[in-house]
UniProtKB/TrEMBL annotation, chains A, B, C, D, E:
InterPro entries linked to this entry: YneE/VCCN1/2-like (IPR044669)
Top-level taxon of the source organism: Bacteria
Keywords: Cell membrane, Ion transport, Membrane, Transmembrane, Transmembrane helix, Transport
Primary localization class, coarse: membrane
Membrane topology category: Multi-pass membrane protein
Family listed: Belongs to the anion channel-forming bestrophin (TC 1.A.46) family.
Pfam families according to UniProt: Bestrophin_2
Transmembrane segments: 25-42, 54-75, 223-243
GO cellular component, one term: plasma membrane
Listed name of the protein: Bestrophin
Gene Ontology MF annotations: chloride channel activity
Length: 291, 291, 291, 291, 291
């Protein structure tokens, strides 16, 4: 995630950050400029079409469909942002959950019990394993060793977060059978242990389910046809100014689609992605403080 | 579900996927082209109406109602998408729930207890039975045998997911009466067992409740009249260009309605439907890893 | 509720269903046509106002306010639809709840215990009683007898769903005192018993709370003035075509308000109302299968 | 709350209810009419500005900003309505909660136990106390006496709903210590007792937190400047018709802001406010029926 | 937070509050006026461009993109407001939670037990510590001493709210081991203790996660280019009136972005921020009344 000061307008407007959409769009913007230039040249100089024909009024179509395309892009923006924000909420829930688990286990486990050490290591391990799992990798160096858990011994084929959650739950039920955790305390821990798996499932859902294919295909086709037909009619009223005008309109519409694509899957390493690495480190720090 | 790379614009724009709306709409698009052509020919050549009459200003009506139709289609898109996404969330909840059940039963049941085998089979069976139930079929080959459960013996008349949930709950309460599951552990399992039935009910609700009839009828009538009256006025300003223009406008409006219809019931086998088959297989894989 | 195939466009467009808004609006549509005709005749033939005066530009007001009225109607549509859909969700929750109750009681109660019979009858009775309660009637023939419950003996004055819920809860606590239901099992049943009353309260809330009076009055006044002033200005540009144009615009705006009014209270017997009768029957069927 | 039949259009359109915005706005509407009249007179008769100058095109600014102002007012409407509806939901939750408490206590407490009488009085007392608390008054006559509770003895300084909730919780824990309420039953009562305080807190939050000051100030300034500059440009195209036109536009924009202000705090005695008085009485009636 | 009377329009419109956006924007508004003046002077007087060229129709681009920019700003407004309102809800949840904790502990703990004193001090301490934590400070003078807790002894490096929550939870589990709090009572307290940490985590999430960088950068670039190009085309139709017109349009668009930036992080000391100081004091008052 980019850390930034939202109030510094100057930087925003004049600096082109590497995650800016201009960075990715500029070849298409130049093609767009050339394309509009050719259309204008043909219509105005070669064929010398007069502005009285029907073609010059085609722009009324762009006016009519301007609502639809704007609303569709807002729909696209909203759904993409909702996933990004839901992803953030899930990681926020993970943070809360790890803290609650640590606080409760600290109050329940007697001082010196080796299970304290086990949970101090394993709770943050879960966060790191989930972070990597959502990037489709398994990186043992991120995890720390605990009694009965050896990061490098974990097979790459299995679902690592599930494996860690199962280990923690087994430890809790073992302590319950040893009467170190009472039945009432087990009940109070239950929800927190469930949440680990719920967060993992919700993040997988966000990652694996982009917006339905039909919408994605339709929006792209719509933008393409809309922008490609733009110069036909407008060239008669604005002349060669159609070149910056269609470049700017294309920039606006395509940027919205591009940003939506990027933030839709918020667990990678893109500039707008969630700081899962930092959150995992904070979990390790705070759990260490408490337990 | 179509697996696709949302960043590959070229394919999106030029390839016509079998689930594209153009595939379904082309006969209507051609009819629309012929219809606009006839209207234009009649108005311009046969009746030779001049562009000064009131008819040429009818297009102001389309401008005024352009907002309403756009906003209605966005309402339609939002409600359809919400069902699709809620369906996905419910199946995500099922995944989480099956994992939590497996993780807990793994920690609770003593090694070697035959109930482990029972739940390892029955939890994924529930997912497969639900998938088929939502497609109105019962397909015993998808389910696996367990002690006390024989897929081919299940009657086609009954509600299969309910039947499986009842079997699992009965097993849990039998283990509780045998003191293999303690009272505290029963309480921690309760929510997970409830969720099975809640997911099933929510999916049935989405499947059985399309958008109210009045909206569906009104939106279709509105699009039809809107597009049919489009050439009357615009023909005077754009001439024969009205043909591609009304085809494109019709394509945009009808596509939105068509996609909404398709994703509204997300449990079938359409290109945009949810991958319930794959999810069920993953549940079987992950429950097998844990239990 | 109307059962329909959302993909059958032809029927939607050309058939006028009895729940269509045209069915209710046609007297107003005809009045609107006559009214616009008179205004046009007066302005064009009697007073022979020229299209140069200020009146002909009054249509710019309709353009400006076109946004506001569209957005207001979408607000109206969204809030009405949300109530309809929340009503559906509540009945879906009732279905889930009845199934969960039945599944659990089936696992808890020993075979042959008379309480099985009691709950097999009373759980579906609750759904039927709620359905009738939301229609302000009490219809004993819908309910079935159980030991200690005689439908015809219930007073019409009392709140019947509460009465049934109290009976079921009393039975559960009696079984608890008899140690047939253990304390742990009581805790797992608690939520399901609460939900019965929660669903009832939520449905009463939806039924008794229409959109605030001020909005309802304001939207109707706004539509009325908007449509009534429409012919004044537009008649100069579209001539007598103003008649179908203002009829169509009135049809669109009034339909949205009319549909919203109808689906706002979804528990009656209107064409768009929820199928509470069918849902209640399904609850009786499924509870009977399980218990 | 005004009880009304949403389908009676005639009354809505022609009757001016005392809660109608026209009732409050008419002095401003008249000022607006005079103001537009003066501007028109000056521009048309005194300075005799021709419609060719730049001023006559200023109306394009109103077109451009028409979207923004409409969308802002919809934002305002949505947030105000959400508070009103959330307030209604909270009171609905209170109703459900009081019923569930009564149903459970009826099943738990032995017949004749004096605690039945206590809760029969105190549960409805809570609703009445909350209703008055949200109107910043304490009105002992609304409350009924119970053993150990004397309405007139309550100090006006303290937080009365908290005081009542604390009394009820104390009674429950006393019964628990006397073994009249078992531990399992205590757990099932816990959530219902929490909800009393949660409803109170949520209502206080709605009441004490209007929309951020900046939005309120900005929307009012924006409407004011927008409407004040309206006659400058439009007078050239519509002439003296600008007077009704700017009055109507002002009526529409200001009404939306006015209604939003009124329903934002839904716990008072305004025409659109929630019927908290009636709901409290219903709670007393239904709790009396059950307990 | 500014306390204000939302019905006092006069003050809103004519008084410029220090938190008004005009206060911050005026240097930019003056620059905008100068810039438009220069462009107008160049186009009209120096280059004497006629209004027939293409440049004068560039304003159609601003019309087309007017939808997009309005909808984007509404998206921005909605997301910022949602964070503000979620922040308020979280503090409301904290209020409810502290009251519920106090009410329950009052009913559970025997009179005179020193733990009463401990919780009477520590529950409000948590609110004050959270308030300061969200402002990145630690201010021991806000906290009160309790047995086993010395505000000035707390290290500045650790996470203070976590530290306080851990202390409270430890006290509860100690009382549980001493049988002063029974197992059933422990279960009923569990949720309330979890909520403390959940509120803290949710507030940290809101504070640390502004809207994705790409949107923030894109919206600012878009507003900038949109407003900068505004005078080019409009100058031909409105003449020097372009100066107030572009100043006003810039004022509207930039204000929306500015307000959104301010309320996005609602835990500081800005005029629109939440009254966390007052809420904390109320918690101390109400907990003191109860416990």
């Amino acid at each position: 995630m980019v850390n930034y000061n939202p109030k510094d307008w100057f930087t925003f407007i004049f600096r082109i950050h590497k995650s800016d959409t201009i960075e990715k769009l500029w070849p298409m913007l130049i093609s767009m400029a050339i394309y509009s230039g050719i259309i204008s040249y043909l219509e105005l100089e070669v064929w010398q079409l007069s502005g009285k024909g029907g073609l010059s009024n085609l722009s009324s179509m762009h006016g009519l469909l301007g609502f639809v395309i704007s609303l569709l892009l807002v729909f696209r923006t909203n759904t993409a942002y909702d996933r990004w924000w839901e992803g953030r909420k899930q990681w926020g829930a993970l943070v809360n959950d790890c803290r609650n688990l640590a606080i409760k286990l600290h109050a329940i486990l007697p001082p010196g019990n080796p299970a304290r050490e086990f949970f101090r290591t394993m709770i943050p391990n879960y966060a790191f394993a989930l972070k990597n799992h959502l990037r489709n990798i398994y990186h043992p160096a991120d995890l720390e060793e605990a009694h009965d858990f050896e990061p490098t011994a974990v097979s790459h084929d299995i679902h690592v977060p599930n494996h860690l959650a199962a280990k923690m739950l087994q430890e809790v039920h073992t302590l319950y059978r040893q009467n170190i955790i009472s039945g009432d305390q087990l009940i109070t821990l239950n929800n927190d242990l469930n949440t680990l798996t719920n967060v993992c499932g919700a993040c997988e859902r966000i990652k694996n389910t982009p917006i339905p294919y039909s919408y994605s295909a339709f929006i792209k086709k719509f933008i393409f046809i809309y922008v490609m037909t733009l110069p036909f009619g407008y060239v008669f009223s604005v002349g060669y100014y159609i070149i910056p005008m269609s470049v700017f309109i294309f920039y606006v519409l395509a940027s919205l689609e591009l940003i939506a694509e990027e933030i839709e899957d918020p667990f990678g390493r893109d500039a707008n992605d969630l700081p899962t690495e930092t959150i995992s480190k904070n979990i390790r720090k705070h759990v260490g403080e408490i337990l």
